[in-house]
Specification:
2 domains, flat, mainly alpha, 73% helix
């Protein structure tokens, strides 16, 4: 029974709690709960930054990666770390909506596009109509994935799972 409850709580964390939420939904500011940060919060970010710097140095000296490419990789990683820190510390409705749309585009859009390719519809269209209409088949699945991600986010009031 304990396993069933635990599995249900994990799955329910990703889906809306109430399927028919009212139109006067709470905003994110009203739903935030003041919680203390865990003890490992600060060491996590310090270790992440140090590991990024060390990996850039190792790539330059040991793997003969050009300096510009190693510095660019470290800079891009710092941007991603900053974004990850921002969405955990001060989440906003706009950023969370963008994340839900990106999460819809990435796995769902890619899966729909691969289904389009593997099913043979793409090769059939390319053989009969040419390559230009086939290009639409590679763009439309990502748009559908974005709409699905936005729909899931709207159902969850754009609150990320496991948000403090």
């Amino acid at each position: 029974m304990n396993i069933k409850n635990r599995l249900e709580s994990v799955i329910r964390g990703w889906f809306p709690k109430e399927p028919n939420m009212s139109r006067d939904k709470l905003t994110m500011a009203e739903t935030k709960v003041s919680t203390t940060k865990p003890w490992w919060w600060t060491p996590l970010w310090i270790c992440t930054i140090l590991a990024t710097i060390v990996s850039g140095v190792v790539m330059y000296f040991l793997f003969d990666v050009p300096l510009a490419r190693a510095a660019g990789g470290v800079a891009l990683t710092f941007i991603c770390i900053g974004f990850a820190y921002y969405i955990r510390v001060s989440p906003s409705m706009t950023v969370n909506r963008a994340l839900y749309i990106l999460l819809g585009i990435t796995p769902l859009g890619f899966s729909l596009m691969m289904l389009y390719v593997v099913s043979g519809i793409g090769s059939f269209i390319a053989a009969h109509l040419g390559p230009v209409p086939n290009l639409i088949g590679f763009i439309v699945p990502y748009i559908i994935g974005a709409f699905i991600g936005d729909w899931i986010g709207k159902r969850r009031n754009y609150i990320l799972p496991m948000t403090p």
